[in-house]
Amino acid sequence: MNPFEFVLTVLGMVFLFTLMKQRMRVRHRWEHPEVDADAGVETRQLRDEVRQLKDRIQVLERIAVEKEDTLSRQIEELRHR
């Protein structure tokens, strides 16, 4: 077997494997549609949770910045006394 035939054989095997894998994936979705529905619900819940966590982070950042600003203002007031 020369190198050209070897490369063609490997490419053919990869193509067949990919085709079989895709057919199995489609068949699984066809036989178990509730899995995709559950995945959609879970994805929605996770996105909501991420959004809530981002909102909390924004609040905490605002609190941290306000405290730093207040602290620096208090230090400046003490210096000017």
TrEMBL record:
Q: Where are the transmembrane segments?
A: 6-22
The superkingdom of the source organism is: Bacteria
The chain's coiled-coil residues are 43-70
The question of whether Coiled coil is a record keyword is answered with: yes
Give the UniProt keywords, A-Z. Answer: Coiled coil, Membrane, Transmembrane, Transmembrane helix
Q: What is this protein called?
A: Phage shock protein B
**Species this protein is from:** Sphingomonas ginkgonis
